[in-house]
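Researcher: Re-running this chain for the archive, since the previous output was lost when a drive failed. Same request as before.
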Amino acid sequence: RDASGLGLQFKTCPVKEAYEEAELSPERMQVLLRISGAGDVGLFEGAGFAIRNDTWAPGSQGCCHLHIEAR
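Model: Regenerated structure tokens:
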């Protein structure tokens, strides 16, 4: 957190864990997590914030990284 906004790096994610349990390929998981992340964008933008959601990619640690700023 700093004067410009808040960064949240998620170490775990129940959605990603469900995709892993379903044995989806990493590439498929990446696409589905990007789609799921659109809900986060809508939620935060609807509340008046600017947001950038760096969703998980194969080879990355943890899960999504949200960058949230006041609009």
